[in-house]
Amino acid sequence: MSRFRTEAGGRVKRDKVLSFTFDGVAYQGLTGDTLASALLANGVHLVGRSFKYHRPRGIVTAGPEDQNALITLRRDAARETPNLRATQVELYQGLEAESQNRWPSLKFDVNAINGLASSLFVSGFYYKTFMWPRSFWKNVYEPRIRAAAGLGKAPAKADPDRYTSRYVHCDVLVIGAGPAGLTAALAAKEAGATVILADEGAEFGGSLLGDAVTTIEGKSTDAWMSDVVMNLAMSDKVRMLARTTAFGYFADNFVALVERVTDHLAAPSDALPRERLWQVRAKQVILATGALERPLVFPENDRPGIMMAEAGRSFLNRYGVKVGLRAVVFTATDSAYRAAIDLKQAGVDIQLIADLRARPPADVVDEALACGLTVRAASTLCGTQGGLRVSAAEVGEVNGDLTIGRKEVVDCDVVLMSGGWTPNINLHSQSRGRLIYNETTQNFLPGAPGYDNVSIGACKGTYDLSATMNEGYAAGEAAARASGRKGGMKKGFSSLGGLAMGGGHLGVVPHDRDPGRVKAFVDFQHDVTAKDIKLATREGFQSIEHVKRFTTTGMATDQGKTSNMNALAIAAKAIGKAIPEVGLTTFRLPYTPTTFGNFAGTARGDLFDPIRKTPMHDWAAAQGAPFENVALWKRAWYFPKAGEDMHAAVNRECKTVRTTVGMFDASTLGKIEVVGPDAAEFMNRMYVNPWTKLEIGRCRYGIMCRDDGFVYDDGVVGRMAADRFHVTTTTGGAPRVMNLMEDYLQTEFTDLKVFLTSTTEQWAVIAVQGPKAREVLAPLVEGIDIGKDAMPHMSVREGRICGVPTRLFRISFTGELGFEVNVPADYGQGVLDAIWREVREAGGCAYGTEAMHVLRAEKGYIIVGQDTDGTLTPDEAGVGWAVGKAKADFLGKRGLMRPDLTGPSRKQLIGLLTVDPKRVPDEGAQLVASAAPAKGSHALGHVTSAYWSENLGRSIAMAQLENGRARLGETVYITSLTGAAFPAVVADPIFYDKAGARIDV
Amino acid sequence: MLLVTCPYCGPRPEIEFRQAGEAHIARPAITCSDDEWADFLYMRDNHKGYMRERWRHVAGCGRFFNVVRHTVTDKFVASYKVGEEKPAIPAEAAAGPRVEIVR
Amino acid sequence: MSETATRLSAFAGLTLPAVRNRLSVTVAPDAIRYSLRGSPAAAAALGAVFGPVPSTTACRATSAGDRAALWLGPDEWYLLAPDGDAAALAASLSAAIDEPHALVDISHRNVGLILKGPRAADVLNGACPLDLSETAFPVGMSTRTLYAKAEIILWRTGLDTFRVEFWRSFAGYIVGLIAENAREHAV
Ligand SMILES: [Zn+2]
Questions:
Q1: Sequence spans of domains, chain C
Q2: Does the CB of B15 have a partner CB in chain C at under 8 Å?
Q3: Quick one: how far is CA A195 from the chain centroid?
Q4: Co-location of A867 and A976 in the same domain
Q5: Is B70 on the interface with A (CB under 8 A)?
Q6: Which residues contact C29 (CB under 8 A, 6 or more apart)?
Q7: With an 8 Å Cβ cutoff, are B9 and C59 in contact?
């Protein structure tokens, strides 16, 4: 075992050795290690390079707040995850990790030259330097900056892992399972509440996990923790989530947790998701998120080997790892003394404790002296030495006037620093809680919460262990009671030991170096130094939110966790304001970086959106039809025969419908059953048409406007009974038409006794269109006379087809004799099979949506949403004849009276015949007045539909054109993506069978 | 995700609902002036503070109803059925200092 | 005369997921389904003939024998009866109601799945945002809600049994999503 691993102790399993690699070098660690502790056990501190200067970076903390030890984990070609914190990555057999932000290697990095030129790379450098010349930005600056910058590399392949999500409700959600969270969960459980306890770590216990000396209720922390955890785990009211980060706190106590399910496993089960998103709705939330130790801002404080004192202690006590052999401790807090004592007792040579404070508490100092440690009060670090690892610290005395007195260079391979403790108020802030600034401790603390939550323990500034546990228990009891459970129990905890966490320092420490040149880092990841923050304030940035964006301090993965308070203190001092006046930046989600997979969950591939299929979908697929997406539906597009391309198939289908017969799946059209004694009056008000006199068994083409007077939807409506209408809508418009009808019925036309039911999916609809349509259906229909006179165009009959009930419509969207067969959906395929036999016998074909579009355009029938766009009135869309002008009121009647809807600038729907009959315009192409219009000329309109018509042997198009109907016969020009605008003649939009003779047979 | 109280079904998750604009906009008689009509069609209030809004429990009971919601904090203070009397709009809490200072 | 057309289920070709001892998913048998819309008085009148009297309490289902009425809204109930002559049943029900109402056949619009087992609620909560604990969603509760992006009717028929009804074109999406959400419960 390496000389950095202790002989015994810690929570690692010493008999379970694991092999892993870092940058291709093989190492060994133990089960229970994190990647960070395993690397440190091998004497490796250098793990990455910084963002801007590519300076060498080491492991700084032992927890998820680390912003230096970002590495890429590789499982296989598709599973490369960048920006994982080595301090949070649990070791498994065969783990492969790589450092980031370096080229060609971690130890020799070309971009580190940025560091040599760092006087150029001051904050705001990018904003200032790369502004001119403009053309340089796109071609020169940006590609180079992009290549050099960035944290890690995004994986090139699709993510092969699964991610799931679960909605869950509880009385009490406890976030953080340290001493405060554990006691809170315990109390809430005992009070009868349903509890979720979540912690980021692999084990519950929080700060207690790195504590070897404390006792709680006479037990060791280990024994006490395992009793409590066991007690909680035995309850079916408690859900314990380890490796779970609460990353977002949303309105009404909706909290997002991400559980890392398989990342720590060497060979995870294929059935398990990589991550599970818990979407928790909690009646009460207890925040027990602890406090984070702050770095001290001193010259050259970023060398690998310089780390948090408590991290050094945690690596020792929890993982059995000595972070170095010779340490200098630099502190402004009491807690670092405990680290020094623990490390010394493990055999680490503690060179000295340099305490920034002139008078550290006597009891703390005495205990250190009793352990044989050297303590120097009023001492600072004026710099450090070393390349890829710290090799010495320059310790200086701080005089009363803050100048530096005697200096000494002290050899060391690790510096343990402690600038104080920052309560972790991130989630409290996310929940829109208010803040309190404590001037004595120089901390921001949670004030009044934004929702039903409470902060307890160190995140509230309570550092004493017994007090923390008592606070936790009381909060758990109170939360249970507030969520409607019994509560009422009380309990006090006693502990011995614990960590003294007093003291602290904000901002740059005193030193004797040139403040204009020295690098004293505030944000290690972004290379933000004290100098950068001062510069920002000199440049006029007074708000901390602006300073943050100008310098990038506390952005990205840090989210201010370690850097915020120091940055704030430096900025406040430079501006000459008090810290609370400068204000704290807003904490935002996610608390720590969160994968895209977690957000996507199961919504990917075929499950991204519902794929709606008609009852006859599989039949069309078996016929070789490709499908077109229409809203969420798949619709058969065309039915190619062997050797046919789309063009040939559509031409054949169009010809066949006009010469014999075609069959079409129209099931996706929206259908609404409008029923009630006032049904006709409701239809009168909702549609522009008059309905009162429509006879039972007859149909009418309905146009719906909104109150603005513009066309909103259309469809054929059949009257099934005096009080019952079968309304059809466009495929995409069905939900919004239903919503609009319900809206008016519930809130405006409340006098009407009418009821709506969507029947879109009750009916499978098979359109049979063409001269032989009647011949095809005749042998299949029972109880309906489908003869020309008995069942005229625009009528509907109920009867049977193929032995099942049908609503048979005689309607046409092709201009040919046509029927639409509605049958209960499960019978759709069976009835289609029978019709298909007859169609083939008659020499007909199946046709898809493309042929449907061409056929209707030949007849000038509009498609709402294609030929209209929410700006055309019924008259402008060419269906003004449908408007029941005598009606007292209908949706759009008042709107159509607006003066701005008249005049020559209004557009109307017209037909276009290109002068070159072979040329098919692009849909969406603009219409202009000449072949080469002057720059800035305004468009006269645009093409809405354009097709090749095989039946007409030429192209046809529909367009919206200014004052279009007055321009019949005139020539306009259609723009082209590939060349000059080309001429077309304005025409009536009915291109085929203007008299409508073919339909009435 | 907000918790929205449907006056028929009780508190339910936001994704079951659809916001439907400002409440209590009366549809004027057809004889109204063009200005009145334009107001009805297009002019809506959108201030910081409490607003009366229409919501529909579209993936629930399907009913349109009214709420009083704060447009900054997103807090709902009342839900009421169409036709029911409007509940009072609560007074805005005084906006204290963002950060309170203690020693 | 041609032969009678046969029925083809919306679930044809779909594989229903199962997790041993934890979850079974079965297709609800063909049924008569009616949408009743009208006043509580209309519903009460219908109940006298139908069997179960539709509930006036929100989100509650009533059932009697093999018939059930699920409250979906203050003027909307979802009626379920064994497969048979839907038109005849509707005629007999309508005849009993004097109030204005609508009774619309949606036997083929909707389809149903039955999820049963100790993990049924968890699998539903993979995409349904409601609290499905026994206290918040007791046996006999019914409501329209969401399963991810699909609208569903959810009815708890037993402590560990739920009936899920939805429009037939969503069958592939919902079955696929249930399978995806059930997958991790095999471990
Ligand atoms: Zn509701």
A1: 3-184
A2: yes
A3: 27
A4: yes
A5: no
A6: C82, C83
A7: yes
Q: What is the pLDDT of residues A653-678, one digit of tens each?
A: 999 999 999 999 999 999 999 999 99
Specify the CATH number for B3-95; select among 3.30.2270.10, 3.40.50.2300, 3.40.190.10, 3.40.50.1000: 3.30.2270.10
User: Which residue range(s) make up the domain with A865?
Assistant: 857-878+900-987
Q: Which two tokens stand for residue A327?
A: 């340490």
Task: Tell me, in angstroms, the distance from the centre of ligand 1 to residue A223's CA.
Answer: 50
Residue A851 backbone phi and psi in degrees, to 5:
-65, -40
Tokens of A922: 């692009």
> Which chain residues have CB less than 5 Å from ligand 1, an ion?
B 6, 8-9, 57, 60-61
Query: Is B30 within 8 Å of A893 when comparing Cβ atoms?
Result: yes
Using CB atoms, which chains have 3+ pairs under 8 A with A?
B, C
- Cβ contact (<8 Å) for B64 and A279? no
| Ligand 1: centre distance to CA A364 (Å) | 62
Looking at the fold, whether A874 and A975 belong to one and the same domain comes out as: yes
Residues A624 and A583 in one domain: no
Query: Are A384 and A300 within one domain?
Result: yes
Residue of A161, A162, A167 for testing the chain C interface, max C β-carbons within 10 Å: A167
Tens of pLDDT, residue by residue over B11-35, are 999 999 999 999 999 999 999 999 9
Residue of B nearest to C73 (CA): B61
Query: What are the angstrom distances between the C-alpha of C72 and each of A805, B8, C57?
Result: 28, 10, 10
The shortest CB-CB distance from C73 to any of B1, B8, B12 is to B8
Asked if residue C105 lies in contact with residue C58, where contact means CB atoms within 8 angstroms, the answer is no
CB contact under 8 A, B15 and C74: no
- What are the tens digits of pLDDT across the range A535-574? 888 888 888 888 888 887 776 667 778 888 888 888 888 8
Shared-domain flag, residues A342 and A410: yes
Q: What's the total number of domains in chain A?
A: 7
Q: Measured between alpha carbons, how far is A423 from A460 in angstroms, rounded to an integer?
A: 6
C142: CA distance to ligand 1 center in Å? Answer: 12
- Pair (A579, A649) in one structural domain: no
The residue extents of the domains of chain B are 3-95
Tell me the pTM: 0.94
What ipTM was assigned to the predicted interfaces of this complex?
A: 0.98
The architecture that CATH gives domain C3-184 is 2-Layer Sandwich (3.30)
Q: What residues 227-246 of chain A have any CB closer than 8 A to a CB of chain C?
A: none
Question: C76–B59: do the CB atoms touch at under 8 Å?
Answer: no
Domain containing residue A535: CATH number: 1.10.10.1100
Residues A253 and A195 in one domain: yes
